[in-house]
Design brief:
Length: 536
């Protein structure tokens, strides 16, 4: 479909319709100093000027959401605006007030400490997109931090947001990655070795950046009038199909958030994504992946793996616990919604239903990953169970395993060696594949092949179906680190190259095989490749 052509003045002509700041109360104080903010959903605040903004990369798909063409993104004005150095007419910069439960504990007021919303753009399709800069300077919510972001974390957020979009995973979007020209001091592993690092700003886009924590803070403070006002605003603005706000409608809205969150968890488990910091302030009411910090991608399939060094001991946010944590977080949102409804039953019902939404979605997703046309509970549950027992026992690359499984021949009466041949390349330590393990794997493959034959679809079709849900290209942890190393050395091209590869994560791209392989051994223990901290 062709887009309407854009003119050179498009950026300056962006149209804003700032519903959030128009319809909700602002912090009456305008001085930008750190403090508790009461009776308000946000504080107006200006981004800081930076030394020398320099564009590293833009996403052309995200740009089209603002009706911007690629050439609009290469202008000096673009770099100035999306690094926070220049405001456009109609913008209304502000930081949102929210609280949250961090690692299971109520943390009180958090808020946009290093994010500044510029305003809501209305595009040619009438869609509203909140434009937000991450790393554009301090706000009243910055607590004891500086409001800045460093290149490494910004690059990781930029690439991963767009990679997730192309994988079909609900996510906030990233328009641009811009170096500020300033340096920022960070102690990467909180071990008393701070270093100056290049600062950067990512421009993010989403229908809204409203989190569970926006409601939690109001409920915790007993500000039920504003709680209702914010809920009514969200329903009327983002969920109008539910009807006019009323106690029953709040319950239906919560149910919708539970469904969207369950669907998101299914997606994360499908592609091997670990968020890393699933605090309630990092949970979107739209069921979007939000706040890319110390996230990571499963390399060897290990449900207990977490990329977040801060979480290394408790592993609260490891891969396999994400659905349970989502449920816990939804329960905190439910607590905040109780004053709206006056009783707990509908909320409790939705929380119970969450488990079913997730499990149904997960089983359907697993059936798809295995190329099965329909899920048959009696046969398929044991098949999934045994597979998930087998995968972590030897270091198996998750992405490659499912991709290669599509190539496993399923005809009857072939040797186990021929059957398992396509999987040879998916192991990190082939020496772990002892006889006993191979026998179990062969037995599983035999059962799988029988099951596929019963399904009766031609093999080429099974492969096509599997390739459509099992990505070949994900943003492997070490790939993001390679791009960071290059940009630090002044070379930007790998960012665009990765962005291009990740645009088509399900396609075979013969000249890009190098980005599809297993993590190289050097990356096994290198900081940034296998472990990250919240410091950004
Ligand atoms: P996160 O878990 O990284 O999403 O952040 C948790 C809270 O800390 C949020 O309120 C952030 O705005 C705040 N925060 C994180 N990094 C910074 C920073 N460099 N400056 C100010 N606030 C920050
Ligand atoms: Mg956050």
């Amino acid at each position: 479909m062709s887009r309407p052509s854009t003119t050179a003045g498009t950026l300056a002509a962006l149209r804003f319709d700032n519903r959030f700041t128009r319809d909700l109360p602002a912090d009456p104080e305008t001085e930008n100093r750190r403090r508790q903010v009461f009776d308000a959903c946000y504080s107006r605040v200006l981004p800081v000027q930076t030394a020398r903004p320099r564009l590293v990369s833009t996403s052309r798909e995200a740009a089209t959401l603002l009706d911007l063409a690629e050439r609009d993104c290469r202008t000096e004005l673009f770099a100035r605006v999306f690094s926070g150095n220049q405001l456009l007419p109609g913008m209304d910069p502000h930081a949102a007030c929210y609280g949250g439960h961090q690692f299971g504990n109520w943390a009180g007021q958090l808020g946009d400490g290093r994010a500044i919303n510029l305003g809501e753009v209305v595009n040619n399709h009438g869609e509203h997109w909140m434009v937000q800069l991450k790393g554009a300077g301090p706000t009243p919510y910055s607590r004891n931090a500086d409001g800045r972001a460093v290149l490494r974390s910004s690059l990781r957020e930029f690439l991963c947001s767009e990679a997730m979009f192309h994988l079909g995973v609900p996510t906030t979007r990233a328009l641009s990655l811009i170096l500020t020209g300033d340096t920022v001091e960070r102690d990467m592993f909180y071990d008393g070795h701070p270093e100056e690092e290049p600062g950067a700003v990512v421009c993010r886009l989403a229908p809204s950046f409203v989190r569970f924590g926006n409601f939690e803070i109001l409920a915790a403070r007993g500000d039920f009038g504003l709680l209702r006002q914010l809920a009514d605003f969200c329903i009327r603005t983002f969920f109008p199909h539910l009807g006019e706000p009323a106690p029953e409608i709040y319950g239906r809205w919560f149910e919708e958030i539970c469904r969207a969150t369950a669907a998101l968890m299914v997606h994360w488990l499908r592609v091997g994504f670990v968020h890393g910091v699933m605090n309630t302030d990092n949970m979107s009411i739209h069921g979007l992946t939000i706040d890319y910090g110390p996230y990571g991608w499963l390399e060897n399939y290990d449900p207990t793996w977490t990329p977040n060094t801060t979480d290394a001991k408790g592993r609260r946010y490891c891969f396999g616990r994400q659905p349970a944590i989502a449920h816990w977080n939804l329960a905190r949102l439910a607590d905040a919604f109780v004053p709206l409804i006056g009783h707990v039953e509908p909320l409790e019902q939705s929380l119970r239903d969450f488990t079913g939404y997730f499990e149904d979605g997960w089983e359907a997703m697993m059936a798809q990953k295995l190329g099965l046309i329909a899920f048959e509970p009696d046969q398929d549950r044991p098949l999934f169970r045994e597979l998930l027992r087998l995968l972590p026992e030897v270091e198996t690359d998750m992405t490659l395993f499912f991709r290669q499984l599509a190539l496993v021949p399923v005809e009857a009466r072939i040797s186990p060696e021929r059957r398992s041949a396509p999987l040879e390349e998916v192991y990190y330590r082939p020496e772990q594949l002892n006889r006993a393990y191979r026998d179990r794997l062969d037995a599983w493959l035999e059962t799988y092949a029988e099951r596929v034959r019963r399904d009766g679809s031609p093999d080429a079709e099974r492969r096509q179906r599997m390739h459509a849900v099992n990505p070949k290209y994900v943003l492997r942890n070490y790939l993001a680190q390679l791009a960071i190393d290059k940009v630090m050395a002044g070379e930007y091209s790998l960012v665009d190259e990765l962005l291009e590869v990740l645009r088509h994560p399900y396609d075979d791209q013969p000249d890009k095989e190098m980005f599809a392989g297993k993590r190289p051994e050097w990356a096994r223990h290198r900081p940034g490749c296998s472990m990250l901290s919240c410091s950004s």
